[in-house]
Design brief:
The chain has about 600 residues and is of the alpha+beta class. It has 19 helices and 23 strands. The protein is about 40% helix and about 20% strand. Strand 18 (about 425-430) and strand 19 form a beta hairpin. It is globular, with a radius of gyration of 28 Å.
C-alpha cells in the first residue's frame, strides 16, 4: 500500500487524514494570529520484531520542516532504552518492548527534535505513540522559535528542555491539537469521513486553556492541587456578579505553606468548586491585598507588592473576563470562556509607523506630539478615544454642535488626561495640535463593525472609514481606542504593504497550481499569506476576472479563489476567523517603484 508519490503508507486513508489534520492546524493558528503556521509530520515504526509481521518504517514530513529522522536508527535507540530499562526495573524484555515500545520510541524521538531544534531554531512537540495497524505512529508539530518568542512565554525557548519545562499559550494549543490528532488516528478508519478539520476552534482553545493551567501548576510545583477542573472553576467564578458588581480581583496560586504571612487566614478554606461562595470572597481582594490559593481552595488574604516567579496569578477583569500570568508575564486572556493570546499594548514604534503611513513622511514632528498625547491618555485607568484627522480645522467646525472646540494647542500630559476623562474624543491634526475635546463622532455604518465591541470602538470605525456628506474624498484619519476593559485598538487596522505586481504574481502562482499536486513550500507560504493578509484583494481581482461571466457559472476568478482558500484549508466561501483582521486602506498596495524600505509581505 503506497501513496501517489510511491511511498509506503501506514493506513489506507493516511493522505486524507494528514490533509484534514493540517487544515485544523492552519485554521487554529490563523485564528490566533500567529505569523507562520506550524508544520505537521509523523514517523511510524513497526511494532513487531517477527519477520512475518515486521513492516518498513514510514516517515512523512512537510517539505518545509527542519526535522529529520532516520527511523531505523530511532528504532535501535528505542530498543536500547527498553533493554536498559528492563534491566534496571527487572522487567521482562518482551513486556517492555511490546507494551511500552511506544514510550521508548517517543523518548528517543524527543531527544532528536530537541537537539535539532536548537540548531534549526525550531520548537517541536511530539504526540504520544499511537498504535495504527502494524506501526507505532508519533506525530511531530514544528514551530519557528521566532513565532514562539513573539508570544508571551516562560523559560528559555532556545533550550532543549523548553518543550517539557516551558510554558506558553502556543505550546498549550499545540498539545491540544496533537491530542485531537492522536484520537482521530486511533480509529481504524482514521481520515475516512472524518470531520477533524471542521473541529470547533473555540473548543480547541478552551482545552488549551486548561492545559496551560496544568503547565503552570507543574512549572510552580507539581504537587500543586486543582487538577483539570481549575480552568472551569475560575471561569464559573468570573461569570458571577456579587450584589450587581463584576469581579475585579487577583488570586495568587502556589503551595499553601508558601503563602507567607496571611493578613486574613481563613480557618475554613473556601473551595474554588463552590463558585458562589468563592465569588463572594473575591470581593475581599483589592489593589493592596490578593487572595491566596493552593489550586483547590482559597486560604486567605496576602499582601503582594510585586508578583513572584514562584507563583502564578489570575486577575479577574470583569464578568467572564480574566487573565493568567507568572511574575510580569501575562500568558493568556480569557473572555467568556474562550482563551486567546494576550494582545500587545500599543507601542510607540507601531503608532508612529501607522501615523506616517496614513499622513505621509512629512509629519515626523506631528508623530512625536501625537504620541505624547496618546501615551499619556493610555496610562490613565478608563476608556478613551484619540482621533487624528487631516482636515481637523474644518472637521471641528462641522462637529461643533456635538463637541467642545478649542484654540489649537499642543496638549500637556496632565491636560490630555483630564480631556480624556469626559465622553467623546480628543481631536488632533497631523501636526499633533488639539482642535477639540469631548468630540462626538459621526460616520456611516461600517461593514466590518463588531457588535461584540462597545460604542466607542464602533463609532471610531465609522468615523475613520466614513465620508462626510458632500465631501469629495474620504478623510485621512487615525484613531486610538482604549476600551473600559483595557484593550487598545489602533484604527485603521493596517495589513503589511505589498507591491501590486507581487500580489498579482502570488495570486497567479497559487491559484493556478495543479490540482492534486502538493504545493512547493514557498508557494504554500504565499497561499497562507494571501488568506491571512490579502483575501479581500484576491476576491476583488476575481470579480474583475469574472466580469461578464453568466450567473451560476464558475469563471477563472472564482476558481482561483476556491483554489487559494482550499489550499489554505478553507472550504468554499468560509474564511478563517482571524483574531485581528485588517481594514482595506489606500496604502495597502503600492507601485513597484515605491517598494524600497517598506515592510513587504510574502
Amino acid at each position: 500500500m503506497s501513496n501517489s508519490d510511491g511511498q509506503e503508507k501506514v493506513w489506507y486513508f493516511q493522505d486524507d487524514f494528514l490533509t484534514k489534520a493540517r487544515t485544523l492546524v492552519r485554521r487554529t493558528f490563523h485564528h490566533l494570529g500567529v505569523e507562520h503556521i506550524p508544520l505537521l509530520g509523523f514517523v511510524a515504526v513497526s511494532r513487531w520484531d517477527e519477520e512475518k509481521y515486521k513492516r518498513e518504517p514510514v516517515v512523512v514530513r512537510d517539505p518545509r520542516m527542519k526535522w529529520v529522522v532516520d527511523p531505523h536508527d530511532l528504532r535501535e535507540r528505542a530498543r536500547a532504552k527498553a533493554d536498559e530499562s528492563s534491566k534496571e526495573m527487572a522487567m521482562s524484555i518482551w513486556l517492555v518492548r511490546e507494551s511500552e515500545s511506544g514510550w521508548f520510541l517517543r523518548s528517543a524521538l524527543m531527544e532528536d527534535v530537541r537537539s535539532q531544534g536548537v540548531a534549526a531554531k525550531t520548537v517541536s512537540l511530539v504526540s504520544s505513540a499511537v498504535p495504527v495497524a502494524m506501526h507505532e505512529v508519533i506525530f511531530v508539530l514544528e514551530m519557528r522559535v521566532d513565532d514562539v518568542v513573539k508570544c508571551p512565554h516562560l523559560g528559555d525557548v532556545a533550550s532543549e528542555d523548553w518543550s517539557v519545562r516551558g510554558g506558553s499559550m502556543l505550546k498549550a494549543v499545540s498539545r491540544a491539537l496533537l491530542g485531537r490528532i492522536e484520537n482521530e488516528a486511533r480509529k481504524e478508519s482514521g481520515g475516512f469521513r472524518s470531520q477533524i478539520e471542521d473541529a470547533d476552534i473555540e473548543g480547541v482553545l478552551r482545552e488549551a486553556g486548561g492545559r496551560l493551567l496544568g503547565d503552570l501548576r507543574f512549572f510552580i510545583q507539581d504537587e500543586l492541587l486543582g487538577g483539570d477542573s481549575l480552568y472551569d472553576w475560575i471561569g464559573a467564578i468570573s461569570s458571577l456578579r456579587y450584589e450587581s458588581a463584576e469581579a475585579k480581583a487577583v488570586v495568587v496560586f502556589g503551595m499553601a505553606e508558601g503563602g507567607g504571612k496571611f493578613e486574613l487566614d481563613f480557618k475554613k478554606k473556601v473551595p474554588l468548586s463552590s463558585a458562589a461562595w468563592a465569588r463572594k470572597v473575591v470581593e475581599l481582594s483589592s489593589r493592596e491585598f490578593c487572595l491566596y490559593s493552593d489550586g483547590t481552595s482559597l486560604h486567605g488574604l496576602v499582601r503582594r507588592n510585586q508578583r513572584s516567579n514562584l507563583e502564578f496569578w489570575v486577575e479577574f477583569r470583569g464578568q467572564s473576563r480574566w487573565w493568567v500570568g507568572v511574575g510580569d508575564v501575562r500568558l493568556m486572556e480569557v473572555a467568556f470562556g474562550v482563551p486567546s493570546l494576550p494582545r500587545p499594548q500599543l507601542s510607540e514604534d507601531s503608532f508612529k509607523a501607522a501615523f506616517l503611513r496614513v499622513f505621509g513622511e512629512s509629519h515626523h514632528e506631528g508623530t512625536v506630539r501625537a504620541w505624547s498625547v496618546v501615551d499619556d491618555v493610555l496610562r490613565q485607568g478608563h476608556g478613551a478615544l484619540v482621533v487624528v484627522v487631516d482636515d481637523a480645522e474644518s472637521e471641528i467646525e462641522h462637529l461643533a454642535s456635538q463637541s467642545m472646540p478649542v484654540t489649537p494647542v499642543c496638549l500637556s500630559g496632565a491636560v490630555a488626561v483630564h480631556a480624556a476623562s469626559i465622553d467623546g474624543a480628543i481631536l488632533l491634526d497631523p501636526n499633533g495640535m488639539c482642535h477639540g475635546v469631548g468630540v462626538i463622532l459621526d460616520g456611516e455604518a461600517y461593514p466590518l463593525g463588531d457588535p461584540a465591541r462597545g460604542a466607542r470602538f464602533n463609532s471610531a470605525l465609522r468615523y475613520v472609514f466614513g465620508k462626510r456628506q458632500g465631501a469629495e474624498r474620504r478623510r485621512r484619519c487615525l484613531a486610538v481606542v482604549k476600551s473600559e476593559d483595557g484593550r487598545v485598538d489602533l484604527l485603521p487596522r493596517l495589513r503589511p504593504q505589498v507591491s501590486k505586481s507581487k500580489l498579482v504574481d502570488m495570486i497567479k502562482r497559487v491559484g493556478t497550481w495543479p490540482d492534486g499536486v502538493a504545493m512547493d513550500p514557498d508557494v504554500q507560504d504565499e497561499c497562507d499569506s494571501l488568506v491571512r493578509h490579502y483575501i479581500e484583494y484576491v476576491r476583488i481581482a476575481a470579480e474583475f476576472a469574472d466580469a461578464g461571466v453568466e450567473d451560476g457559472e464558475s469563471g477563472w476568478g472564482r476558481k482561483v479563489v476556491d483554489a487559494i482558500l482550499g489550499n489554505a484549508g478553507a472550504r468554499g466561501d468560509r474564511v478563517f476567523l482571524i483574531r485581528d483582521g485588517f481594514d482595506m486602506h489606500e496604502s495597502d498596495l503600492v507601485d513597484d517603484e515605491d517598494v524600497g524600505g517598506m515592510d513587504e509581505a510574502g
